[in-house]
Here is the input.
Amino acid sequence: MMSDEKAILSLQNGSDVRGTALEGVKGEPVTLTEEYVNRIAGAFVKWLANKLGKKVTELKIAVGHDSRISANTLKAQVLKAVLGNGAKAYDCGMATTPAMFMSLVYEQTKFDGAIMITASHLPFNRNGLKFFTIDGGMEKSDLTDMLEIAVQTAVVDPKLEDVKKCNLIDIYAKDLCEKIRKGINATDHCHPLNGLHIVVDAGNGAGGFFVEKVLDQLGADTTGSQFLNPDGHFPNHIPNPENKQAMEAIRNAVITNKADLGLIFDTDVDRMSAVLADGKEINRDALIAMMSAILAPAYPGSTIITDSVTSDKLTDFLQNELHLKHHRYMRGYKNVINECKRLNAKGEVSPLAIETSGHGALKENYYLDDGAYLAVKLLIAAAVAKKENKSIESLIEKLKPIFEEAEYRMAINCEDFKTYGQMVLKTFEERAKAKGYTVVKPSYEGVRLSFKGDVNGWALLRQSLHDPKMPLNVEGDGAGDCGKITAMMLELLTGFDKLDKSPLQK
Here is the structure.
């Protein structure tokens, strides 16, 4: 049996806590137990007091959750831990991850810390915890330190009558409304979205509020919006803008209802993608291009930070059409956000850090990855374009479409998978150079190859951030190029017996 220490530390997933919270799925025993949640939340109280230099009794800590069916059970343990360790606890109820951070900013709340109970788009039986200070989401190293404290923290079980209520989502929604009103500056100040037909797909997560509390208040027609009711079983589709079924659902809703724009959120609304009136999906590279085009006039010549798997076509659009710089960095939303902060701190203007997953953080919005704020920027641009008798699609009409792409996830079948993966990458690069292939530099993650001539496109081999896997992304610019590049990559990977190359051979 796993020790308490190992079990608690194993719940770390980057800068978040995640685990299985419900029984019922074969082969997935409960790992995020009520006891561990209580101890981890108690450790956050102690860690936060030390970080802020405050007494525990001076702390005000907010607690919110998304629509997961284990949320209320875990929330009770978090609230008990906050109270039992001496701090004041505020129950924010159904909320979004970005709203929980903003609860530390708003004058009417000004909490010292916040805990969001969510596991983003993961299956219904999973759950997790995200932690916020005024500096933003917790860093990976800080979470490791905090979990070490949790190992030594006892369970507490006070009564919950001293918990205070906070209707945070109303405060957050009003703030979003004012941002849209200010951004559009329409004659009808109260209803600046009048005349726009917007449909929303919340995937039965926490994003349904955006229809009633934002779009309806601003005069938009929201007919056809779907899956707004919170339901942690996620009966309609996975609430994930990267999921093909989810994107097809919002695409169908836009076309069926003849809407101007469709918005889709993930479970806790820190990610967003969109669909235009003609059914064109604004996700991955297209979302990055759209947000960059919206920001470019205010930040000429600035740097856009993305993750490593973006297309060369995006680079061409950012640099040659928008006259911006493209800084392709590591995957992981905290990685791109921290790189954005670093560049701005040294004087290089970088207004946007954004992943192909839909995580997008703006410097003007506290470097917060906020799907609803991305939607705000998109809505402002759509309303302004409509006033000028233009389509929002015109912003990215010169972004060249991707012809063919593929992602292969190869398992590493050995215990020390990180060391093995590094050896694979080193040898892979050496073999590529020996073949005369172009190795793209700098590369902050994995080995990226570029092909021009008889075969055109690119490939990126990297290690997964957390799992014993090596993803390979391939993009071809013409008929057959993707398959040809994949075959070339398979040849470069010959002989690695602990790397499962079967996905490339199908």
Notes: The mean pLDDT is 96. The longest helix spans residues 34-52. The chain has 15 helices and 22 strands. Residues 10 and 434 are 41 Å apart (CA to CA).
